Amino acid sequence: MLRLTAAALLLASAAPALAETHTITPGDGAQERLQEALILAAPGDEIVLEAGRYTITDGLSLDVDNVTVRGAGMDGTVLDFTTQAGSGEGLLVTSDNVTLRDFALENPKGDGIKSKGADNIVYYRVRVTWTNGPDANNGAYGIYPVESTGVLIDGAKVTGASDAGIYVGQSNGITVRNSIAEANVAGIEIENSRNALVEHNIATRNTGGILIFDLPGLPVMGGGNVIVANNLVVANDTANFAPPGNIVAGVRRGTGIMVMANEDVLIEGNILQHNPTAPIMVIAYVQGFEDERYNPLPRDVVVGQNTYGVGGDDPQMDNADMLLAAFGGALPPVMWDGLGTLFTDSGTPGWSLNLPEQGKGTGMAQPSPLSVPEPAGEFDRTGIGAPAELDARIG
Amino acid sequence: MRHAFALVLAAAAALAASVVAQATGAPKLMVNDVAVQEDGFPRALAEFGFFQDAGATEPSDFVYLYELNTPLWSDGADKLRYIYVPDGERITADGAGNGDGLLQFPVGSAIIKTFAYGEGEDQRFIETRVLLHRADGWVALPYRWNAEQTDARLAIAGARIPITTPEGEEISYRIPNMNQCKTCHAQDGEVIPIGPKARNLSADWLAQMVDSGHLTAMPEGADVLPVWQAADTDGEIDAQARAYLDVNCAHCHKPGGSASNTGLDLRWEQNDPFTIGVRKPPVAAGRGAGGFLVSIEPGDPDASILVHRMNSAEPGVAMPELGRSTIDHDAVALMRTWIEGMSE
Question: Is B183's Cβ below 8 Å from some Cβ in A?
Fold first, then answer.
């Protein structure tokens, strides 16, 4: 059936193409039919994945602009990669204006869905699950847009990633919202990216809930202009299961929202509960570096009003007992290393390591209650978030 | 040790066949320039007319066999490489590519690569990949050979085929799908050739191409990469290692390549130690890092992610991600020697 469609397309290749729908059903040859559809689709086409389980043994990829891949719901259409034999991810997207919606990937050997240089991409109600739960042998990233301008992730769910469930790297104009990140090392991570809005998500049972990182040595540098607002960041208490060597392997179990380096980050309206190391952590990059383009300090990070429940009560850090005793049984909700510039809403309890220097470890720490100014003015929200036209695609 | 012998024999056979065809003056098929240049994906390799015979061993006019000093390793497969340049057209080599000496082919050219296992009578073609230079860019297509070795058909979605490698390993050989071709051949989103760079081509071959009138001039910096088959002695470890990484890894690990986001640049011309991986922490390696902290730990191959990933055949760990199902043990040994020799 699809072969016929493909042949017809070839014959008609000179004629102006009308948008077509390519319907894929599970069963014999589904992988080949799906991959052919992904290759032969024309811009404007929609690929419909009917409900059912699809056994996929090789990485899938899409390189045609303006294509929608639509399943029958994240619990209805499941691409099962448990027997995957090749490729570094389940689905790779390298074209622009793509919409991925209403389907799931299970047990990809590497990353789940990677979109690289894929501008204006929408992930809507997509699920990536490693069904065995937290495991160092799981793939690194569940949803993984990188080097892209315009990223909207809405209603997604990722479980079990050995690095970050939802990871947006080296990108610009990003919204991650209404999504659930559970039992990953990092729930949601925004790395070396600008103009990102992370709102109305649930991050739970991860090692760290929401991470905003800026790292040296990458092609795209200078992360910042990030808002983390109105998220439920609860019980991120899974022991770190990342393979050592990855930057998230250094995240302490029980971190709620963490900012490392970056400039102009606003954290407000979040509910933080049962994050036993630090509900909110703002620190400089911890290692040495040689990249002259890189600023390792957090600059102009604003912690506004958030709701703090129990937290900081079982910190994974040296001298935890001493610290707990000093702070009366639980660490205050905002932890800062004392480097860079931090502003907090008045009355926000916190503590500082008062480190004198970046990249020299915590040996020189002189912990004390936090004393930082309130923000001088309104946080500038201009240009933050995915382009508005991406919303229209999921309207 | 590196199957050079089979390759040379096959090459000699192909050349001889071509000479015979010319000498006998039999009416020859011409390359089908319409199939090369016009839109669409021919369903059979034969439609291009790159070869005189159904078995694709006798190249047509203006189809030239070539070899690379250091080749891309693909599960130990032998490779027969050809370029096609239309009559009267010329390849240019001046200021080519991004300064990497990639030959610049005129529109209408094609690059053809057949993957084969077995020697002599037992040689079997598995797949033939073609790159077509059309007016709007390069197109990459994979063709799968039939068991009778009489016909190679377009495999848009790729395929998996059981193969016994020269080392006796039973593997599931992967013919890439059309998109996977692009993954390795991508530069800033465009498809480009990878192999035919002046530095990795023999001066003799380039001189022949100049003589034939299909290459404007002998390129600068030609024939610089070491000849892999001959380089199993000593003395050139650094050059061998860098050449291997350039040819096998840098098509993705370069600025504008498919793995550009890692910041790892393994091109021959990259001289910054950190950028080629020395004490460089992983960026997006995930479990591929294998618990190691840096891509290359000087003096300690066992702590180097690069060795770990080359020495794995497991999806999600193995590098390169595409184009191999087994481990290139010679290359792993070379990388170990190279890294051991780096001063700590």
Answer: yes
pLDDT of residue A224: 96
Give chain B's residues under pLDDT 70.
1-26, 94-98, 230-235
pLDDT of residue B24: 56
Rounded Cα–Cα distance for residues B29 and B27 (Å):
7
Sign of the torsion formed by the C-alpha atoms of A201, A206, A208 and A211: negative
Q: Which two tokens stand for residue B154?
A: 């377009």
Query: Are the C-beta atoms of residues A261 and A296 closer than 8 Å to each other?
Result: yes
Say whether residue B216 is in contact with chain A using an 8 A CB cutoff. Answer: no
B120 min Cα distance to partner chain A (Å):
30
Q: For the segment A155-169, what is each residue's pLDDT rounded down to a tens digit?
A: 999 999 999 999 999
Residue A6 in contact with partner chain B when CB distance is under 8 A = yes
Instruction: With beta carbons under 8 A apart, name residues in chain A contacting B158.
Output: 35, 58
Helix (H, G, I), strand (E, B) or coil at B139: strand
Q: What is the ipTM of this complex?
A: 0.79
Q: Bigger pLDDT: B14 or A153? A: A153
Query: Are A298 and A259 in contact, with CB atoms under 8 Å apart?
Result: yes
Q: What is the count of residue pairs from A and B with beta carbons less than 8 Å apart?
A: 147
In this predicted structure, the answer to whether residue A15 has a pLDDT above a threshold of 80 is no
Strand (E) or helix (H) holding B178: helix B178-185
Q: How does DSSP classify residue A136?
A: T
- Across the interface, whether the CB atoms of A61 and B263 are under 8 A apart is answered no
CA distances from B70 to A184, A220, B2, B197, B227 (A): 42, 32, 11, 11, 6
Q: Smallest CA–CA separation between A280 and chain B, in Å? A: 24
Given a cut of 70, whether residue A334 has pLDDT beyond it is yes
Predicted pLDDT of residue A10: 47
Q: Which residues are CB-contacts of A133 (< 8 A; sequence separation ≥ 6)?
A: A159, A160, A183
- Write the CA distances from A25 to A28, A33, A50, A53, A75, integer angstroms: 9, 9, 5, 9, 16
C-alpha–C-alpha distance, residues A388 and B13, integer Å: 62
Taking only the tens place, the pLDDT of each residue in A281-308 is 999 999 888 889 999 999 999 999 999 9
What's the pLDDT at A8? 45
User: What is residue B17's DSSP assignment?
Assistant: H
Closest to A174 measured CA to CA, from A192, A158, A186: A192
**What mean pLDDT, rounded, does chain A reach?**
93
Burial of B291 (0-12, 13-18, 19+ CB in 10 A): middle
pLDDT of residue A102: 98
With beta carbons less than 8 A apart as the criterion, state whether A318 and A311 touch: no
Q: Does A74 touch chain B (CB under 8 A)?
A: no
From the list A84, A116, A146, the residue facing B315 with the nearest CB is: A84
For the stretch B133-157, what's the b/e string if a residue is b when 16 or more beta carbons lie within 10 angstroms of its beta carbon? beeeebbbbbbbbeeeeebbbbbbb
Is B260–A147 a contact, with Cβ atoms under 8 angstroms apart?
yes
Helix (H) or strand (E) holding A195: strand A194-199
Q: d(Cα A244, Cα A250) in Å, to the nearest integer?
A: 8
What is the end-to-end Cα distance of chain B in Å, rounded? Answer: 31
Residue A177 host element (H or E):
strand A172-177
CA dihedral for B305, B306, B307, B312, sign (positive or negative) = positive
Q: How far apart are CA A74 and CA A143, in angstroms?
A: 14
